[in-house]
Amino acid sequence: MWLKPEEVLLKNALKLWLMERSNDYFVLQRRRGYEEEGGGGLTGLLVGTLDSVLDSTAKVAPFRILHQTPDSQVYLSIACGANREEITKHWDWLEQNIMKTLSVFDSNEDITNFVQGKIRGLIAEEGKHSFAKEDDPEKFREALLKFEKCFGLPEQEKLVTYYSCSYWKGRVPCQGWLYLSTNFLSFYSFLLGSEIKLIISWDEVSKLEKTSNVILTESIHVCSQGENHYFSMFLHINKTYLLMEQLANYAIRRLFDKETFDNDPVLYNPLQITKRGLESRAHSEQFNAFFRLPKGESLKEVHECFLWVPFSHFNTHGKMCISENYICFASQDGNHCSVIIPLRELPISSESTDPSDNFEVQSLTSQKECSKTVSTEALMTVFHPQNLETLNSKMLKEKMKEQSWKILFAECGRGVSMFRTKKTRDLVVRGIPETLRGELWMLFSGAVNDMATNPGYYAEVVEQSLGTSNLATEEIERDLRRSLPEHPAFQSDTGISALRRVLTAYAYRNPKIGYCQAMNILTSVLLLYAKEEEAFWLLVAVCERMLPDYFNRRIIGALVDQAVFEELIRDHLPQLTEHMTDMTFFSSVSLSWFLTLFISVLPIESAVNVVDCFFYDGIKSILQLGLAILDYNLDKLLTCKDDAEAVTALNRFFDNVTNKDSPLPSNVQQGSNMSDEKTSLTRVDITDLIRESNEKYGNIRYEDIHSMRYRNRLYVIQTLEETTKQNVLRVVSQDVNLSLRELDELYVIFKKELFLSCYWCLGCPVLKHHDPSLPYLEQYQIDCQQFRALYHLLSPWAHSANRDSLALWTFRLLDENSDCLINFKEFSSAIDIMYNGSFTEKIKLLFKMHIPPAYTEVKSKDASKGDELSKEELLYFSQLHVSKPANEKEAESAKHSLEKGKGKIDIQAYLSQWQDELFKKEENIKDLPRMNQSQFIQFSKTLYNLFHEDPEEESLYQAIAVVTSLLLRMEEVGRKLHSPTSSAKGFSDTVCASGRSSEEKTGSHLEKDPSSLREEPQWSFAFEQILASLLNEPALVRFFEKPIDVKATLENAKTSQLRSRTKMQIP
């Protein structure tokens, strides 16, 4: 690697470097201790330690080239190399291209300037294609070289950043370097002869958190595959942790959670990920979440400033955040004052001439009618119009609330750019008036911005989605009448039709989510207070921003927030944690709280107050309310003996939550319909409960929740993956002889190979093979390319010269439905036979690999590669169709259509298939088709290849020659009984002429003259004939019954799996 020329004092450097080559202008040196026996003694150990600790790779590369000028003690370092081959290449280039030119110059100064300019030009040329785009490119290039040298990862692995830190091995800290790349967390340390090299895949990380204890003041804890790793002594631990969090989340989403990754093109290309980009992305996500802005907004600038608050007549200190379409301000504490100003609301922009850099903006406060709507009235105004002539105490309180908001609007403005202050929050906690609820929900949720920037969108989607029929629309129709059935609005066609349109339009807009139960309950409440189009955009805000990943197949978002809730319970209610030994109780109880925002458990008149707070404070308000509910019922929960009793206590509590100020008619209110027995219990007003939740738990910060969501997302997804694995192992273990531990390790290797195929590929089709909605066995499937890599690692027959062909035929044999994918059950069945199968089972596997549909003639286009197949050839042959008998073809077609159908699910067909599998009989060897001439020739070649380099190689060759001779003679005798000509005589005589026993003798005849045999009538063998002949040879039986050390094979495969990728051509 060429280096930016830097001065080196050769006098001091000679103690650490040895001269290898030199001429008048350049010196090639080798690092002391490198390529020396014993590491160069004590000096070598000390040098190695320095190389690990120092911050310059120019000092630690084992080779370097210096530019020297005569009669000077100062040299310039211009190149370094990780190995002799690399540095020699640079040296040869200098001698061929530079040395001749230098003789032209008259002065040493001109020579030095020329060399410096040439080297800088080479570096600039390299930089055009380099991944290094950091603040200090030269330093980053050096770190990149050390990263590649230490870990030997493929060139496509993108180094994002690196840090000096300590890794705690037991109680001893080891100083070294932490490298963060797109797919791996890597650490390297070399101290006094002790080398530590650690590589952790981001997709294996189940826990990532900042911790502190007596020994470690502050450290980063990484848990991977049950092992704990601690890193400390960072210069900027918060920045380091933020980047690690981003990279781990990126890997998790890319590999496990494709539903959300597909909607995020920013992270689609791993080679474009940079430290600066990740930091910017993290800040933008927090910015959008805090101010409820559309997902596409990117934070451009942040400035500390003072905001003049006109109604209070004072300046408040905070930060101004600027994006493409918004200017936002939040006071220092985040709660005192905040403002959101859409640039679309600024008709006038005037430059300030005041030298103090103050400026004033005047926003539009009028709501623009810029979109078409299907229904222009909220259902509440249609079904419960307020009667001003019959004002009761509740209606008077409602009017007082409205007046309070009007006063606030007069002070703080009305509309999207209003000032949001502590007074705003207090009014929200008291409950938003019925007439303002829809408007303020739109404002606080940010849905008003979505609707304003997408005029006419809802009407178009409704029109396009009309008449569509799919699984989502069927589920919507089924649930329409279950959405607030007691409310008059949803006992009429008006409400039902509006609900149908909103849900169908959203399913059309976002087919990844489509429709999920609980969406109908939430949407019905939205329609009560908002116009139809507004309800649609509120649903968009909830599903895509405020409750991300809640409404997909695995409800990952809800599970993540439940894990956050459990963490908050441990922090704020420790006595409850001690009593409830199983924390999963809180998850099972609170799932409906999060999915429906308490609508499903609270009376409607109380639930809408919770929704008020949710749109203002987001998930923070739901978490706070959950804590307040548990705190209120703490004494009862501590006396409960089991989960059922605790659930009953909470349900009774919810039944007694009321809203004494609700203006809803009594026939709509659910809390007023309680029986006389229940009225004797203590009533709890929802306003008091919400106020208490704010007072006790209002100190929970948005930033902390955001961080906890990230942290717990890793845990939740890894837990789901572990559940998938355990279910797969439980099913597969019934059909194989491998132990559960061996199956576990095999599954890890299987899944890792799939992921390794995705690491360095853009738009890798492998990602499409992961579908969490499928049955456990079908969630992860590999194609022929991945199977070949696993076959090379795991198969005891992988040393064969035609191993690529064997891998191909095995894959085709396992791929019964011809979709060019196999699952873990199919994969493990083949590996199990190779490891634990009897002699008969192994021969039957080989036999079936050499007959259709598995067998196909294979020939590489590149003769120089021998039997090795390229990726394209492998995929071509794996997809090659081989005709089958009509009855088999029909059965396969039915099975294929069953598995691939994405429309309606035929339950009867699934039950029939399941029954067939249950009563599946052991395959009878008599049912196997006969092996024809060309197939038998290839079968014989395969056996010869398997025996190569075996200790009993010679006796095995003799045995197979005897078997082939015997089989051909049997065929010859059989043909003589039916025909006077002998079709197998030529081959038989060749094999048995003089008891030939080598592969070269017998195999050569098979290769040289197969056409002469084909000219004769075709002959074939049954499996029983081949098996009986092979059983007569003890050497063959010993070879196939030789025990295999499964544990050692799996361990070796795990350690070499990543290393093997560097030798493969990565697309």
Can you put this structure into words, describing what you see?
- A hairpin with a 7-residue loop joins strand 10 and strand 11.
- The protein has a seven-stranded antiparallel beta sheet.
- With 1067 residues, the chain is of the alpha+beta class.
- It is globular and about 110 Å long.
- Helix 18 packs across helix 19, helix 39 packs antiparallel against helix 40 and helix 40 runs antiparallel to helix 41.
- 52% of the residues lie in helices and 12% in strands.
- It has 46 helices and 21 strands.
% residues in beta strands: 5-15%
Mean of all residue-level pLDDT scores: 81
Instruction: Report the structural category.
Output: alpha+beta
Largest sheet: 7 strands, antiparallel
Nearest-angstrom radius of gyration? Answer: 37 Å
- Can you count the beta strands? 21
- Overall geometry comes to globular
Tally of contiguous helical segments? 46
Strand order of the largest sheet: 9-8-7-6-12-11-10
| Poorly predicted tracts of residues | 55-59, 349-353, 359-373, 672-679, 883-905, 981-1015
* Spatial gap, N to C terminus: 25 Å
Which bin fits the share of residues in helices?
Answer: 40-55%
Name a few traits of the molecule.
1067 residues, alpha+beta, seven-stranded antiparallel sheet, five-stranded antiparallel sheet, 46 helices, 21 strands, globular, calcium ion binding, Rab-GAP-TBC_dom, repeat, GTPase activation
Compact summary:
By secondary structure, this protein is of the alpha+beta class. The chain contains 46 helices and 21 strands. Helix content is 52%, strand content 12%.
